[in-house]
Amino acid sequence: VKFLMDLGFEIGRLAGFFVYLKNRFFYQPVILTFHQIDDGPEPEIQSKYALTKKKFHRLIEEIERKGERLISLGELIRLSETCPERLFFYPFVAFTFDDAYLSVFRLIQESFRNRRFPATVFAPVHCLGEKAGWNTASSIGGDRIMTLEELQTLYDEGIEIGSHCLTHPKL
To answer: What is the pTM of this model?
Structure first.
């Protein structure tokens, strides 16, 4: 009985060691999803859907400082299908932006003057150019949805575009 207890203890320690190794030497891709980008100063009341430009730029700097690699969601999916083992040996981060708000267009246009980064924008395709009507309580500055031309501009600059839904119903 003592032998079995000692064996169980050693197996538990070994399993813990393997968990440590997995977390220490292997990575899991991170997908960060954003909605709106606030142009103004730090608001007193934080929106769960908005991030300030300053915080966004600090986030990119931190990712670069840590040596993590920014890739698009499409590239992350391609890697998972063609070479999944690479995902465990490199720290990949993908940015996605839901709802294709105009503030995201402005952020990308402004940021691309200094630094390019891959990203994926998901647009509610039947709402292009319209004001967002689904989250009026948390919307900042009456942010509207990008137009087809704005999405095309982003696409031409290397940003992936995807369909978020057709009409973005209130769920």
So the answer is: 0.75
